[in-house]
Design a protein that fits this description.
The structure holds two protein chains of two kinds. Chain A is α+β, with helices and mostly antiparallel strands. Chain A has twelve helices and 13 strands. The longest helix of chain A is centred in the middle third of the chain and has 16 residues. Chain B has two domains: 99 residues, Beta Barrel (Elongation Factor Tu (Ef-tu), domain 3); 187 residues, 3-Layer(aba) Sandwich (Rossmann fold). Classes of the chains: A alpha+beta, B alpha/beta. At the A-B interface, strand 4, strand 5, strand 10, strand 11 and helix 10 of A face strand 4, helix 1 and strand 13 of B.
């Protein structure tokens, strides 16, 4: 693993833009941050410094698990797979929470040909966060603020005086950097990085209610009445599941064409929609909003899922809090969970 | 990599059986099992209780169970009730039309536990369909020894006579195993007795009573010379729940009672997220679960 100290980040950006479709987070005229392709083969790269104090509205999940994906076509006789063939692309400046989510989905979609076809074409340039972001709590769920080893191909770490530490992480990253003549720097910068990240961690507000809430979710102490009341505020808008970097539920639909031909698409679905589990017979195991909301949080923080994925399904980005119009994002839910007195199966616990 | 792509199948034939329900006969198109490398799915290895995804072109996919697994000519059968968009479109399709199928998926019935032991089967409505291949298999193996007939007892529950399904199968089994029927709406005395047998010489009498299958359970259980070691349930969840509760109170271990669940599914390979119960995917870990597992999952 090589580390470089560079003054001119644009040189790196322009170099990568020559070999990859170049995507980076930009701020639009409304002040909102989002991922955008800012250079292609035909346009000259216009590159900006990565945004280090804000996170994009949406994570990077749509680059791999796309909002809509054609999975097959039928010609009246045979079904044929439609694997995407994207050109190599770079995501420049992916923050640690979103990289952790990509790592999580890499595991979940490890045998999915559509996800993998896109994922394998991608170079991930990670970006260390050196200040907490609004609603973020990545340290609490072991997802930041620094990029975890192996979660990106290259890590960028901002230093003072507009200098950057560039850390190679994978062979893919090393290949991407190989024609650039950068000066390798001393290992002590990594110690400096650790100190900065440690300091950043300390600056996050106290969120013990989150760890307490996670414990409660797994404790069997929470009554269905609690979830029912909470779910009164769920509008079933899918804002949380759309923006959640690890949410991956999908539906499928047929797109009819002429001559009995059709294509089949998969598209992002949401477990918070009333009809998500509804069967053709109208039997619906999660007809109650409370059941759906509980199922969602169980999926994010259930011990069983932790065992399977070696981490929680939440990466601490806080986007659900930011977007939920019913104010039942992560912080609100966890605070209410910890305030919930010991109740079980709708019965007041007299020992509470 | 996972294969999301169906194999083409031909609708060979169908016959009506019960209320808005049909036996469908399909054939893998231009393919003979084991002879064509273009074959995408492992159709040779279908276990009783497993399912496949039927793709009705331009409409969608839904899971169905096999009532007869694919043979060497790639022919297989399924019992399908008209219910939603996919099945409604299927019911308009003609013989010779082409559809898609992928599978088999899921874990079937626990054959190792059943293995020649006393087995009670309780099915409701078209919940009998996932049990057809199993009952056929078990009934055939018991045929040689008449004393073994009591080793397998079927309780079949339906709303009324019109919703009793899989008539040919039940008629066939009548010669092989003891069957109890229950009907929520019992016919008038003047009506024909359901499932009356004209030729009772080598058939076990079918007992039919009014009410839920719970009513007939004591009698069904007393048929066994020694208590059943395995119970297999498939039908509405409320029914399965009450039967499983009854059987555990009767003394059966919760890991000896198995339930086949139905869930909405889009992928059948553990990705789409529609079918999971707690952390278990019904499409992969199920659709057959032990009562013990479902209670741990707080699944029903």
């Amino acid at each position: 693993m090589k580390i470089y100290l560079i003054n001119d980040l644009q040189r790196l950006q322009q170099h990568l833009a020559k070999n990859y479709q170049f995507h980076q987070v930009v701020t639009n005229s409304d002040g909102q941050c989002h991922w955008q392709q800012i250079a292609s083969e035909t346009t000259k790269p216009v590159v900006h410094d990565p945004l280090i104090y804000e996170k994009p509205q949406s994570s990077a999940k749509a680059f791999f698990f796309t909002e809509q994906e054609k999975v097959l076509v039928f010609n009246g006789e045979f079904f044929q797979e439609t694997i995407p063939t994207p050109k190599p692309f770079v995501l420049f400046g992916v923050q640690s929470c979103d990289l952790t989510a990509i790592h999580y989905q890499d595991k979940f979609f490890k045998d999915d040909p559509y996800y993998q076809a896109r994922r394998q074409q991608c170079l991930l340039v990670g970006l260390d966060c050196i200040t907490p972001c609004e609603h973020g709590f990545c340290p609490t769920v072991n997802a930041g603020p620094g990029v975890k080893d192996g979660y990106a191909d290259i890590i960028l770490h901002p230093l003072a005086n507009k200098q950057w530490l560039v850390i190679e992480q994978t062979n893919k990253g090393a290949q991407a950097l190989k024609d650039l003549v950068f000066t390798e720097t001393h290992w002590h910068y990594l110690t400096q990085r650790d100190l900065v990240l440690h300091q950043c961690e300390k600056e996050f507000p106290d969120d013990k209610y989150i760890t307490d809430g996670i414990q409660k979710i797994n404790s069997d102490e929470i009554s269905s009445e609690f979830w029912r009341k909470l779910a009164i505020q769920c509008l079933g808008c899918s804002g949380c599941t759309t923006l959640c970097p690890t949410c991956s539920c999908y539906g499928t639909r047929a797109i009819k064409q002429d001559n009995n031909h059709f294509s089949q698409q998969r598209f992002w679905d949401s477990c918070l929609y009333e009809g998500f589990q509804r069967e053709a017979s109208f039997n619906n195991p999660s007809a109650e909003a409370g059941t759906r909301v509980q199922r969602f949080w169980q999926h994010k923080f259930g011990d069983e899922f932790f065992t399977e994925f070696s981490r929680h399904g939440c990466v601490g980005c806080g986007r659900c809090e930011q977007t939920c119009p019913g104010v039942i994002g992560i912080h609100s839910v966890m605070k209410r969970l910890t305030e919930e007195r010991g109740q079980k199966n709708g019965q007041e616990d007299t020992n509470a | 990599m996972l294969n999301h792509i169906p194999d083409s199948i031909e609708l060979v034939d169908y016959i009506d059986d019960g209320e808005q329900a049909r036996h469908y006969h399909f054939r893998l198109l231009n393919l003979k099992i084991g002879q064509n490398k273009n074959h995408q799915h492992n159709w040779q290895q279908v276990q009783p209780g497993q399912f496949f995804m039927l793709n009705v072109p331009s409409v969608g996919e839904a899971p169905f169970t096999f009532t007869e697994p694919p043979n060497e000519q790639g022919e297989f059968r399924a019992f399908i009730r008209q219910m939603g968009q996919v099945t409604s479109a299927l019911f308009t399709m003609q013989r010779g039309d082409i559809l898609g199928a992928r599978g088999p998926f899921g874990s079937g019935w626990p054959l190792d536990k059943i293995n020649n032991n006393n087995t009670l089967i309780v099915a409701g409505g078209c919940g009998l369909a996932p049990l057809v291949t199993l009952i056929d298999k078990l009934a055939d193996s018991l045929m040689d020894k008449p004393e073994n007939k009591q080793k397998l007892v079927l309780v079949y529950a339906a709303r009324n006579k019109a919703t009793q399904m899989l008539t040919p199968e039940r008629a066939r089994w009548q010669k092989q195993i003891k069957i109890f029927n229950t009907l929520d709406e019992y016919p008038n005395a003047s009506d024909e007795y359901p499932n009356a047998s004209d030729d009772a010489s080598d058939e076990l009498p079918v007992t039919t009573v009014e009410g839920s299958p719970l009513i007939i359970l004591p009698k069904a259980l007393s048929t066994f010379t020694s208590p059943p070691t395995t119970a297999l349930l498939c039908g509405p969840e409320v029914m399965m729940n009450s039967i499983a509760t009854y059987l555990t109170e009767y003394g059966m271990a919760s890991d000896a009672i198995f339930l086949a669940l139905e869930r909405r599914m889009h992928c059948a390979v553990g990705l789409c997220g529609h079918c999971y119960i707690n952390h278990q995917y019904v499409c992969k870990s199920g659709p057959t679960f032990s009562w013990q597992t479902l209670q741990q999952l707080k699944g029903l």
